[in-house]
Amino acid sequence: MERVEWLKKVRAQTEALYDHIAPEYWVQFGFYANETHRQFIEKFLGRLNPHSSILDAACGAGRYDGMLLEAGHNVLGTDQSSGMLDRAREVFPQERFPGLRYTKMGLQELDFQAQFEGVICIDAMENIFPEDWPGIMVRFQKALKQSGVLYLTVEMVESSEVRDAYERAKAMGLPVVLGELADKIDSAYTQLVAQDWQGISGELAGSAAYHYYPSKEQVRSWHEQASLVIEAEGSGDGYAHFLSWRTN
Hints:
Shape: globular
Number of strands: 9
CATH class of the largest domain: Alpha Beta
CATH topology of the largest domain: Rossmann fold
């Protein structure tokens, strides 16, 4: 299978995966205490004026939207999974949270122009192909108003795990590049969708989802290419954290 065709298949499968696990999301995968995430969200919020507009890109089931609302901001959450957005609307019904809206839109389709003082993309970029990273970073930049702030997380794993997964996938004939974990996604996905969504384990769901792990150096380069200046970096809870702002 050619890489372009394979990537289309993987993206559709990832969307279907999240639709499938959505009913169980807040039971098994809901909000969890993550100190580094919390600290960076507080830094992000500290850069915003009162009553700012925030884009929660790839918001999933709205895990972090409560923190944004409690700070007094208006939030638009976007995600490519209809199932996850349904769960978010259950937790944050619009009649109770008029400052929060949700709409179905993948990161690759973001088309906002200088609409937001802040953008967050948390626990999501690990599911993005390397080919899509540069364009998505530009879309984040365009969505921000002048001097707007972006908070982005990038999941980190051991380099040996990445290398081993790459070798296994190549041996299977998959058109992967170094950094992708894809050798288990088909078998895990088949196992997952064959069972009822209740009791789905986080480990199985993680194995069924495509992951890509760029280096921090590469992520910094993509920021620079998109005219985003990194103000603060950190590591913790399995992620690298980047706080940046739009320069033009």
